[in-house]
Amino acid sequence: MDSNSVSPMPDMAPMAEFDKTPPTPPEDTLPMDDLPPPPTTVTVQEEKEKEAHRHYEEENEWGCGSWLEYALVMVLACILLLASLGLTLYWVIRHQEGFAWRDDPKRQFNLHPVLMVAGFITFSGFSVLLYRICRCCRRIYVKLLHTVFHALAIPCVAVGFLAVLDSHNLALPPIPNFYSLHSWIGLVTMGLFAIQFVVGFFSFLILLCCEGATAGFRASLVPIHASFGLTTFMLAIAACLTGLTEKVFFSLGSYYTTLPEEGMVVNALAMVLVALAIVTGYILQREEFRFRAHILIRSGDL
Fold it and tell me: Would the pLDDT of 55 be above 80?
C-alpha cells in the first residue's frame, strides 16, 4: 500500500440525545393534595363583623330571669287591659242601672264610659302591645293585627262620643258640652288617635305596594308613630281618670267621702288604669322586648 495514500475515516457514532423528561421526584416529596392550604388573610371588616355577631348572640340569648320578667309583665298587662273593661261593665250595670238609648238619656250616658274604655284602653292597649306579644310572627301579620285592633276601637269611640252628646242634649235641663278638663283631654285624644290611624294605615299598608321606594320614609316614620301612639294611650288613661272623678262626684256628691261600694269600685278601676299606664310604659321602653329584637334562631334548632 502506498504510504502517501489516505485511508478513509471510519464513520463516527451519532451523539447521544439528552433525555428531556423531568426527573422523578424523591419518594419523600408530598403530593400537592396533602399540602396544607395557604394562610388566609382576614380583613379588619370581616373581623369586626364576626365580633359583632358574637356580641349579638351574647346579648340576645335570654336566661330564665329574662323570660320570667317578660312573661310576668306581659300577662300582667293583658290582665289589666281586660280588668279595666270588666270593672267598667260591673260598675255601670250594678251601680248605674245599665244601658239605654235616646229614650232614657241618663242610662244612654252609661254607654260612654264602657265604649270609651273598650276602644281607647282595651283594644288600643292590645294594639300597642302586639309588637311585644307576637314576637315570633311575621311582621306583616303583626301590622295587620295592629290595624284590626285599631279598627275595632273606631266604632267604640264614635258611638261612645255620640252617646254622651245625646245624653247631654236630651237631658232636662240640657247639660253643657266641652266645658270640663275631661272633655278637653278627650278631644285631644280622639284627634291624635284619628291622625295616628290615618298616617299609620297609609304609610304601613297602602305604601307597601311600592315598598322599595318608600322604605326609607316608612323607616323614619316608625319612631314618630310609636311615640305618638304611646302618648295617645297615656292621654286616654288621663281622660278616663278625670272622667271617673267627674262622674263619681256628680253621682255620689258628699256621700263619696264615706267610701261606699260604688266609690270603692270606681277607685279600684282608677288604680287598674294607673297600673296599666305604668306596666305599658315599662314594656314599651324596654329595648329587649321589641319585635324580634332578641330571638336567636339557629339552623341546628330547626
Answer: no
